[in-house]
Amino acid sequence: MLLATGDRYVTGAVVLGTFVVPLAFCFKLVEGEDLPGTELQLLVRLFVFGGVLGFLASAFLEHPLGSQPAVVFDGWVGLVEETSKLAALAFMTRNFVGRTPRSGFVLGGLVGFGFAAFESAGYAVASAVGPGTDSHVLIDTVLTRAVTAPFTHGLWSAVAGAALFASSRNGRFRPAPLALAALAGVAVLHAGWDLMPYLAAHLEYWSTGTDAHLKALYETGQAILCLPPLYVVYRLRRRPAPAADGERESAPSGSLVSAGGIDRSAA
Question: 26, 46, 52, 135 - which has most CB atoms within 10 Å?
C-alpha cells in the first residue's frame, strides 16, 4: 500500500506491523482462558496503558544511557525495559486478587504486546519522517518487528509476569528469588537479542573474515534466544492450575471482595 499510494504516514504496513499483529496475539493469548477477574476492561487497560507506562518509563530511564557507546546502551536497555514493563504490570494489577502463574503469564503478555506496539509505532514514525526516508526501510522495520514481537517483548513480559504472580502472597507483590531470577533472565535474553548483530559480526569475522553469512548467524542466534522462554511456556502449560493468591487464605471477615476478583477495599 505504501509503494502504491506514496503515503508515508498512514499505511497498511504501519497499522499491520504496529497494532494489528500484537492485538491478534493478545486475542490468541486470552482465547480459551478462564481466569477470575480478567474482565475485558482490565485486559484493554493492560495493553494500552500498561504498554504506554512501560514505554514511557523505559524511555525516561534510558535517556542517561544515550551518551554511552551503542554496545553499552544495548547491553543495559534490556534490564531497563523489562523492569519498566514488570513495574507497569505490578502497578496496574495491584488490586487484582486472582494471581496465579497462568494469569500472570496472560496479563504480563498483554503489557508486553502493548509495549511492542507503541515502540514499533515510534520506530515507524522515525523511519517515515527522518531524513532520507526510504519506503522499503520503513516496511522492513515495521514488519520485522511485527514478526518478532511474539517472541520478544510479549514472551519476555509473560514469563516475568508469571513469576511475579507466583511470588505474590497475601495480596502483595514480593521481590522473591523466583521473581528476581525471572526478571534477570528475561533481561539477559533481551540484551542478547539487542547485541546479536555485534556478536554475529564478530563471530563471522573470527571464523572466516567475511560477512557473507552474517544474516544467517544473526537469525540463528535470535532463534536460540527464543528457546528458554518457550520452554518455560511449555512447562507452565503442563502444570495444573494452582489456587489464586486470593484463594490461598480465606478473606477476612468484612472485607469487600467483588465477584470479579478485584479487592475494592484496597483501592
Answer: 46
Per-residue pLDDT tens digits for 131-171: 666 667 777 777 778 788 888 999 999 999 999 999 998 88
Supply the pLDDT for residue 126.
74
CA distance 260 to 40: 11
**pTM of this prediction?**
0.81
pLDDT in tens, 26-49: 988 888 777 777 788 889 999 999
Q: 241 in helix, strand or coil?
A: coil
Q: How far apart are the C-alpha atoms of 238 and 164, rounded to whole Å?
A: 19
CA distance 25 to 29: 6
Q: Bridge partners of 96? A: 262
The whole-angstrom distance between residue 86's C-alpha and the CA centroid of its chain comes to: 9
Report the run of H or E that residue 195 belongs to, with start and end: helix 177-207
Identify the three-state secondary structure at position 257: strand
Euclidean distance between the first and the last CA atom of the chain, given in angstroms as a whole number? 47
| Of residues 13, 229, 43, the one with CA closest to residue 121 | 13
